[in-house]
Write a structure and sequence with these properties.
- This protein has nine helices and 14 strands.
- The chain is α/β, with parallel strands linked by helices and 308 residues long.
- It has a single domain (2-7, 37-85, 112-306), classed as UDP-N-acetylmuramoyl-L-alanine:D-glutamate ligase (3-Layer(aba) Sandwich), CATH 3.40.1190.20.
- It has a ten-stranded mixed β-sheet, sandwiched between helices. The protein has a four-stranded mixed β-sheet with strand order 3-2-6-7.
- The protein is globular, with a radius of gyration of 18 Å.
- The model has no long low-confidence stretch (mean pLDDT 95).
- The structure holds alpha-D-ribofuranose.
- The site of alpha-D-ribofuranose has 16 residues, from strand 2, helix 1, strand 7 and helix 7.
Amino acid sequence: MLYNYGSINIDHVYRVPHLVRPGETLSSLSYRQVLGGKGSNQTIAVARAGGNVMHWGRLGRKDRWVLETLTSSGANIAHIEIAEEASGHTVIQVDDEGENSIVLYPGANHGFSRAHLEALFSITQPGEWLLLQNECNATDEVLALAHQHGMKIAFNPAPMNAEVRKLPLEHVDVLFLNRGEAAMLLDADDNTPTEALLDQLEQRFPATEIVLTLGAEGVAYRHGESRLQIPAQRVEAVDTTGAGDTFIGYFMAARLAQAPIETCLQRATTAAALCVQREGAAPSIPTTAELEQVLAQQPPHDVLTSSS
Ligand code: RIB
């Protein structure tokens, strides 16, 4: 079982000709309300990939419809608390290139209490996986509790902020980052070359598996002697929202199934490429059947392997 301590957001998605500029008023070309939230997206991706996942989250009373979406993906929702506060929500602009910008209101995602966290951890077993992102409160406590309970931890420090540097990241087994997040975590320049970022991450977190997503350049993986890189697939991006979450969910599902790391990366990369070709967060996360169809039609990716 994988437990995902994660946000649930209602995404308000506006299609725009370009991302709005300071002081500008811009008419949107369309508007959609969909399920999102990095946590919820990652849970759905794990579940659609066939993984056994329980979501730990908080949701405002009027958004119960979300539970049905999560359940129909195959996720366990037994520990989603219906909160008095409003759900988390976002305002997302998506431009003609499929790029986005997001304003996030945390809402119920920031209402976890210590007692609630202890109750959640009481159902876990040592050796089980905890996945978390950085859209809920008490990230530091959750990392510490997971460590105390002997769990394996996968962490995606998104959205990144300066507080992340103070977290007990030495407890993390798998760290998922993009280039910008890696640079901020390391306090490095945004233009730092990928290899230098990977070297610095490896020095800082020698026991941690590093998964660095590189957008159009693909993904790089480092752990001890193991160094892999997989190029991105060339696809036409309609909306990149949720692509990183899809990658993480598919990676973790393959990991739970004890697949080799090359397989975890290949499945995750292919799933993310499918996600960016569709609009919205949760609605764009592919099913395993869709992934298998693509994998059956395409030659395997080149995996670049080198040892340190
Ligand atoms: O990673 C994409 C997600 O980030 C969106 O669904 C939005 O809710 C924000 O949390």
